[in-house]
Specification:
Number of strands: 20
Bound molecules: adenosine-5'-diphosphate, magnesium ion
Low-confidence stretches: 89-150, 845-852
Radius of gyration: 31 Å
Strand content: 15-25%
Helix content: 40-55%
Mean pLDDT: 81
């Protein structure tokens, strides 16, 4: 199979012309064909990393094409079309090579042109003159009549004055390929060089900036404090001189040389920071200022962008210099700024008190005042949230419109019976959430609900009640869990609770023998078992339901979109209910699942005592063992958790379960029975181990994080977590949730080998609260969204300027505005510009398409 850009282009345009049916070609369906082509492209073309990244995004999108709505498909097809020019001849100067012997240069040039025109057609703005946002106070260059040759913001960044082939190549490393990309490369921060002071006038306590020539640079480890390095730069501006000082831990020769190289004597430098008085030396100095080296003397003329004003500082990459980038962005604004349009209507901006988009982009790059910068940022942050929320609102509206759904009104026959046989009464929160689910099920619109509930809040019984509503209506129900341990746990509970009702239940696991599996499969296909529990095995080939009406997905974040879609496809239009025990702060939840309804089980079953948590360092381990011994002495059981399975050489200070289990058994607790559980054990051994612990044939279970979900042994009352600093807070909380499942007091002891400030802060959060939501908020604050979520595939779109921990209010506002707009104009028929922008936005946020 060979690659043909020509065929690809043809396929894309044909698909678009037919309005995205995933058209059947001669040999394959459209999406499969594109996927195949993309796979080959990625292998053979090996273009630069940012193109490769875009291709890989696209191919993720096409892999799920079948599951997408038509507008989402349109976005993908557009996205692919706009990439074609990069995949062939015309831009070879950017370090990309054309696939040999596939396409003549003339061909590819023509196609590149077509793709660009297609793009242009979508984005050609209304006449610029009519734009009411002529920047008044922004110092950004007044847009001249654009000198562009009709190719808009999507032409190669090389068309910007001052951007040569080499710089274009470097910019490509940052994913900046077009003029638009460059204009959207926003400052990481600003330096306030607008408050320039002459050195002669410096006063201690002032926060000011100065500029002048570098006179002297020093870096040394002072003899009396050898563990410290002092670095200093002395600057003079003709009115006096002042020394700037920084400190860091001990530095080696190389680091000191690096520092000196950064500040060449004789060059001009800008510094901004606080002036202090050194009592000891009787002199003023600059305390750790921001500094920026401008260049050699004699270039003052070109400094005007970089001096005496608020100056943007950009994310850079190797080989890209701040000054050059600043000049390029300024030139881009000057030549192309007028092409920036605002898809949001004037009235809307006014209502939401927002700056125009062009004005905001210009002002955020080169603000005239701090107020200007603030307002500009406000608009840009609004946009980051708004388009996402609008996308979510749009998708939700489309889904409501397009999907059929079965109505499953609760009858109460089975659910009432279950409530009778349960050994407990539902908590208020459980009852409320079940009620919400029942209402969704009865409605003719598809359910789209996520149940969040802290560990131990009792989600399982809510899942079962929901499944029984389906069964009452003659449908089957399925519950999918991410691990075998968890699936078996659910299955056991279900069997226990369903047996009195006379309802059979099936279990499907990957590790099952053929005979067992076949029996279950037959029973499911014949409709004999109304309820099935399982892992991924539920969605494999050969699993046929007779009449699947409801799918519950436990710990939904552990599944990919594809797997969820596959389970859904096992029925005609089954309802889907998702559950998670990992509380997500509201900002994240809105960003990731903004199109879901969320129910929260915010109450624990009665009689639970909050787990008492304490934090010790290695020295306190003895105390921990005493507590464990005391609990074991009164007949309870304990978990001891380690971050690693086996000792690793790189991680000297990290304890490993396998090794420590031996020590614990033989040296620490010889009189008790110690078992070992970790993820790499064969499934049957794992199961046997958990079973033994459950039956109290073991007193202590040494484990890794495999026990994080699913293990439910109420008699276990104490958990020790070693190297607790290595776990995320939410993960610690999940782990800790394995104890405190009975009515008696439980304990958790966190042992850390680090005593750093961060560790201290994090452990104190764990000690202070048992509330998963509070912990999640803190975790997000301390680690940031990327690390908090742990994976890129989490589907969280990139926020450049918005801060999910700070900008909660902005997010709520943007969400409100988006949903209001969508309610008023569900198809965006009256807002064609908004619609076009929305599609474009989706295109660069393909990951986002996959959520939900
Ligand atoms: P999770 O939300 O973590 O999945 P589970 O569903 O496993 O929680 O419930 C934790 C434990 O609490 C189980 O042993 C379950 O039987 C019990 N439980 C659930 N609901 C109640 C209730 N309303 N009253 C008392 N115990 C309950
Ligand atoms: Mg659960």
């Amino acid at each position: 199979m060979s690659i043909s850009i020509g065929k690809l282009h043809q396929a894309l345009t044909v698909e678009a012309r037919h309005r995205y049916p995933n058209i059947q070609g001669q040999t394959a369906r459209f999406a499969d064909f594109v996927c195949e082509q993309l796979a080959i492209l990625r292998l053979t073309l090996a273009p630069n990393p940012s193109i490769r990244a875009k291709l890989s995004q696209l191919s993720d999108g096409f892999a799920e094409y079948e599951a997408l709505t038509p507008p989402e498909r349109a976005t993908l097809v557009d996205g692919m079309l706009s990439m074609l020019p990069y995949l062939s001849g015309p831009r070879a100067e950017m370090g990309m090579t054309a696939p040999m012997g596939v396409l003549s240069p003339a061909d590819s040039a023509r196609m590149a042109e077509q793709a660009r025109t297609a793009q242009l057609a979508r984005e050609t703005p209304a006449p610029y003159a009519k734009q009411p946002t002529a920047p008044k106070q922004s110092t950004a260059p007044k847009p001249k009549v654009p000198k562009v040759d009709g190719k808009g913001l999507d032409q190669a960044v090389q068309f910007v004055k001052g951007v040569g082939p080499r710089m274009a190549e470097t910019l490509a490393k940052l994913g900046i390929l077009t003029v638009r990309d460059l204009l959207h490369h926003f400052p990481r921060k600003h330096l306030y060089y607008d408050n320039r002071t002459l050195i002669r006038d410096l006063k201690a306590g002032d926060e000011v900036s100065i500029w002048g020539a570098i006179r002297k640079v020093e870096a040394f480890n002072p003899p009396r404090k050898p563990n410290m390095c002092i670095m200093s730069v002395t600057v003079s501006d003709g009115t006096g001189s002042v020394t700037a000082r920084w400190f860091q831990g001990k530095a080696n020769r190389f680091q000191m040389d690096q520092f000196k190289k950064r500040y060449p004597v004789g060059w001009r430098v800008l510094m901004s920071g606080v002036v202090r008085f050194d009592e000891f030396q009787g002199r003023k100095f600059f305390d750790r200022p921001e500094a920026e080296v401008l260049g050699e003397s004699g270039e003052e003329e070109s400094d005007s962008l970089h001096l005496g004003r608020i100056v943007p500082v950009y994310p850079l990459t190797e080989g890209l210099h701040l000054k050059g980038l600043r000049n390029a962005i300024h030139a881009a604004l000057e030549a192309f700024g007028a092409l920036i349009t605002d898809p949001l209507p004037q009235a809307f901006l006014k209502r939401n008190q927002l700056m125009g988009r062009r004005e905001a982009i210009q002002a955020y790059h080169f603000p005239t005042s701090r107020e200007d910068e603030k307002r500009a940022k406000q608009r840009l942050v609004f946009d980051e949230f708004f388009w996402l929320q609008l996308g979510l609102a749009y998708r939700r509206a489309q889904m409501r419109k397009n999907s059929e759904s079965i109505a499953i009104p609760a009858k109460g026959e089975l659910t009432e019976k279950l409530l009778d046989v349960l050994p407990f009464k539902l908590t208020g929160a459980q009852a409320r959430v079940f009620d919400e689910i029942r209402r969704d099920l009865a409605a003719s619109e598809p359910m789209n609900r996520l149940v969040q509930g802290d560990v131990g809040s009792g989600k399982t019984v809510v899942a079962l009640l929901s499944l029984l509503v389906a069964v009452e209506n003659g449908y089957q129900g399925a519950l999918m869990a991410p691990t075998e341990i968890l699936a078996e746990q659910h299955y056991k509970k279900f069997v226990e609770w369903l047996t009195p009702l006379g309802i059979p239940c099936a279990l499907l696991l990957g590790k099952q023998g053929k005979r067992e599996r076949n029996q279950y499969l037959k029973a499911i296909a014949a409709g004999y078992t109304p309820i099935a529990v399982g892992t991924h095995a539920l969605i494999q080939e050969g699993v046929e339901f007779q009449n699947l009406g409801l799918v519950v997905i436990d710990e939904q974040h552990r599944f990919g979109v594809k797997q969820r879609a596959e389970l859904r496809s096992k029925g005609r239009h089954p309802e889907v209910l998702t559950m998670t025990a990992t509380p997500i702060p509201r900002t994240l939840a809105l960003s990731m699942h903004g199109d879901l309804d969320v129910s929260v089980i915010d109450e624990l079953p009665p009689g639970r005592k909050p787990i008492q948590t304490s934090w010790v360092t290695g020295k306190g381990r003895k105390g921990a063992w005493e507590l464990v011994r005391r609990e074991l002495g009164i007949g309870r059981q304990a978990y001891i958790v380690f971050p690693l399975i086996d000792k690793s050489e790189e991680l000297e200070n990290v304890r490993a379960a396998t090794e420590e289990a031996e020590i614990l058994q033989h040296k620490v607790f010889p009189e008790y029975r110690v078992g070992l559980l970790h993820g790499q054990m064969p499934a049957d051994e794992k199961e046997a181990m958990i079973e033994a612990f459950r039956k109290h044939e073991l007193d202590i279970l040494v484990a890794t994080t495999v026990i994080e979900v699913g293990v439910d042994v109420p008699n276990a009352s104490v958990m020790v977590i070693e190297n607790a600093e290595r776990f995320g807070l939410s993960q610690l909380h999940q782990l800790r949730g394995r104890v405190g499942r009975g009515a008696d007091q439980s304990y958790c002891i966190l042992v850390t080998s680090s005593t750093s400030e961060t560790t201290k802060q994090r452990m104190e959060v764990m000690v202070a609260t048992n509330d998963g939501f509070v912990i999640a908020e803190q975790d997000l604050k301390l680690r940031g969204p990327g690390e908090f979520l742990g994976t890129r595939q989490s589907g969280l779109p990139d926020f450049v300027l918005a801060d999910l921990t700070e900008d909660t209010h902005a997010l709520e506002e943007a969400r409100k505005a988006a949903f209001e707009l969508m309610t008023a104009d569900p198809d965006l028929a009256q807002h064609p510009q908004v619609k076009a922008e929305l599609y474009r936005h989706f295109q660069s946020n393909l990951g986002f398409l996959g959520i939900g």
